[in-house]
Structure formats: C-alpha cells, structure tokens
C-alpha cells in the first residue's frame, strides 16, 4: 500500500512574510554526486477497502490503518548510465505498522542491511543492500518512500520564479508522490507563495495541490493532494514537505470501492560532514551497482525451518504445512518440501518416486540426467533432471535432495520448453542456497 498521501502539522513559531519580495528566485536543489542530506519521513493513513469474497457475493468493507516513520541519511552517487539516478542510504530509525481488518502487520529492517542503494531507471526503482540480501518485507518497508532526486527536483520550478507564479510538477515527481505506474489524467500544481523567515533563515513558501487519476499497485484510483513545502534559499535545499491526500480506489466502471486518507511529512537537512558508513572509505570496494548477486532476495521462515536466496524474477507463492512454492513471471515453478532426517529420501529413491508419478500422468520422457552431487551449503545436495512431455506441454524438470544435520529438503522445479537456458541457472542457484535452520521433527 502506498503510504505517501499525507500531512503532519509542524509549528515553526512566528513566521514573517516578506510580501514585498518580488525578485525572481532560483529554487533549485543540485542532486550532483556527493550531495547529502538527513531525511525524516512520517506517514499516517486511515481508510476503508472493499475486499472481494466469494464469486457472486458483495465485497466486504474492511478498515485500514497505518503509521510509519523512516529516518535516514542519504548520499547521491554517480549514476551507472545517463538515464539513471542513484543514491545510498543509511537507515537510522524505522517504525512500520499496518492493520487491515483484524490483521496487524509490523516490519523492520535488520541492522546488518540498513545501508541500501536505491537506483531509479526507466521509471522504476529498486533498493538493494551491498551488505547482504534483503527480504521482501524489508523492501516493502522502504518501497513506497519518495525518491528525493526525482520527487524534490520535480516539485521545484524549471526557471526563476516570482511570488504568485505557478508551474506543473513533473510526471516523475507525480509518480513518486502517488506511486502511479500509469497516469491517465490530471496534474499536480506548485505555487510560489512568498518568502518567509524560519529560525533566522529565508525560505520560499510553496503550495502544492492537484488531482490525478491513474493506475498503481492498488489498481485504478483517483488521488487528491494538497499541502505546502519550504525551500531554504541560502542552503538551496527543500527542507520541508507536508501533504494531505485522499485516494479513491475505483473499479472497472469508475465506481469508488474504497477510500484512504493520509498525512505525510518530510523534513530534510543538508549534511556537511558525511557519516562514517556513507564516507568514501566505507563505500570503497563495495559493489554499488545492481547485479545478480547483490539483488538476490532472502526468504527465511523460522516456523518452517528453511532459508534460501532467490532472484527478483521469482516470488514466493503458497506456504502451507511443510511446503513452500516459488513462481516465476515466465511460467516456471518450484516446490520445496521440508523433511525430517528419517523421512528424507535418497536421490535414487526420489528419482524412482518421480518416474512413477510421471508414468501415472502418462508423460513421455525424452531425456534424463542421473543423480549427481553438486556444491551447496554445508550438507549434501544431489540433483537430477528429466526432459518430458506432459499432455501437450514440453518441460524440463529439475529435482534435488538436500541433506543437512537438522533435516532435509526435496526440491521439484518445472521449466517450460524454451526457458531452460535463462531459468535453469536460477533454479540451481536457489537449490544451492537452501538451508535447514532448525531441527525438523518427524510427524
């Protein structure tokens, strides 16, 4: 759920409005490599959502409440290419809680991976940590936070402005503030209201307002935003952004199916001296560009007793009993089954079991690879593979048996015909990363 719809009220004490100031001002923040700031974001949302039930029945309205606070230091890095932007963040304080109906979710980020790199390219942005794999829950905590080089830069005017002038926020900024993946109509407009003194510093007061309609992860929706911002003229930095937002979730006919109201406040302060974990010496030697290894996701289920790494093209599907599934966007799938040591089959027994099952399915085996041992986590990993036609579908079937001290895991993967070259290395990467994390008892 996108949480950046928004306003918390902050008292600045006595404000003096310099209404006589008519000179054109350049309100621009330079997000060049090395630019750094301290950021504090607070969000609160409330609303009601229509949740589909059984087919033919009316959706059920459930309440939604959420609060979050993220505090981090951020440094702009040199981009990997001309069409991308990149920063590195060190998260200092994290609070995230969301309640949907009777279900409450809270989340955190492990201290070991609180330093993250955020890359935005082609309208998409994805965080990763150079210090270790992130879980999907950790990504979800930071996923909807605004990316300042896009949001802040896109709210500021493209040319010097005078009091009373208005301009449209860039589509990049609108996407950051609303999480819209596709914008159908509407604009966010910014107005230069005047110059004010805050704590002895001159700041430009900006007013932000507008209504947009489009599609994001919640489907079709309409959002109305209104609020204010403060730009420190001498520091050339947007130091405060406060927005109040209303989001209406829409069905295919444009009918409102849910309504969410939110408050968002962001405070920013320029950093003159970089903290140790964002310094040149600290970052030297780290891989700060996204790669297959540093963008792997971590799945760790203490209840099930299994942990593994998987590429971002996969998603964890059903987790039930002693089994967990993974699905790939291009049609592949993996089933992992956790077993007690006494119930774990050998690779040869597992191969006979698989062949018996395929025979019942009247599958035609067109190729096979006998069980062989491959390098894995501590323990023993034996794998084998089959080429088969099941009905009208051709597929490569990958299998493995992982045996460790605390228990074991059987793995079954299905790769559609024509996808093996791209997907097989990823399947093997997942197999090799599986670890049993607790004693598995026989049931």
Task: Provide a quick synopsis of the model.
The protein is mainly β. The chain has helices at residues 136-143, 148-155, 171-178, 280-283, 347-360, 420-433; strands at 16-18, 36-51, 60-77, 84-100, 103-107, 115-121, 124-128, 166-168, 182-198, 201-216, 219-232, 237-250, 256-270, 297-301, 306-310, 314-320, 323-328, 333-339, 364-374, 380-390, 393-403, 408-416, 435-436. The strands form three sheets. Strands 1, 2, 3, 4, 5, 6, 7, 8, 9, 10, 11, 12 and 13 form a 13-stranded antiparallel β-sheet that branches. The protein has a seven-stranded antiparallel β-sheet with strand order 16-17-18-22-21-20-19, sandwiched between helices. A three-stranded antiparallel β-sheet has the order 14-15-23.
Can you put this structure into words, describing what you see?
The protein has 443 residues and is mainly β. 13% of the residues lie in helices and 51% in strands. The strands form three sheets. Strands 1, 2, 3, 4, 5, 6, 7, 8, 9, 10, 11, 12 and 13 form a 13-stranded antiparallel sheet that branches. A seven-stranded antiparallel sheet has the order 16-17-18-22-21-20-19, with helices on both faces. Strand 12 (237-250) and strand 13 form a beta hairpin. It is elongated, with a radius of gyration of 26 Å.
